Amino acid sequence: MDLSPTVCYRAVQARDARYDGRFFTCVKTTRIYCRPICPARPPKLENCTFVPTAAAAQEAGYRPCLRCRPESSPELDAWRGTEATVSRAMKLIEAGALDSDDVASLADRLEIGERQLRRLFSRHIGAAPITVAQTRRVLLAKQLIHQTNLPMIQVALASGFGSVRRF
Questions:
Q1: If pLDDT is split at 50, 70 and 90, which confidence band does 2 have?
Q2: pTM
């Protein structure tokens, strides 16, 4: 990418999200580097240098801004926050984490509390983790019924139900 100072500075002034992760602003007076979307007041153009990576800014002796956290790029889970935790939980549930264990063990694997996990699911998904797991089981069972000739007992067990009665 062309790191033209005028283009970069316009992106910083506009807090343009399209440039986030493409360059970093190093402020000479404070020795801090920021992302283009940083909520802090933009520095003067004469105090700025623009570098392509956070590593280049660190190498030049700048420290990361405490407001925009440029050391964690937008693609990293650390930047996505609670959404990343819910995404990881969904992947674990899809892999069968709640087929044999309970919600508390899932929360332990995610290194958060069980109550916090329930809150996150309520906020992001609109349902409890166990409800998501049960829905996954039912949809898998429905798929097996329509696409195979398995007896109901095998469908129940293959889709994650512990017994035919639960199915």
A1: low
A2: 0.54
Domains observed in the chain: 5-64 (3.40.10.10), 81-158 (1.10.10.60)
Phi first, then psi, for residue 52 (nearest 5°) are -75, -25
The residues that are catalytic are 34, 38, 65, 68
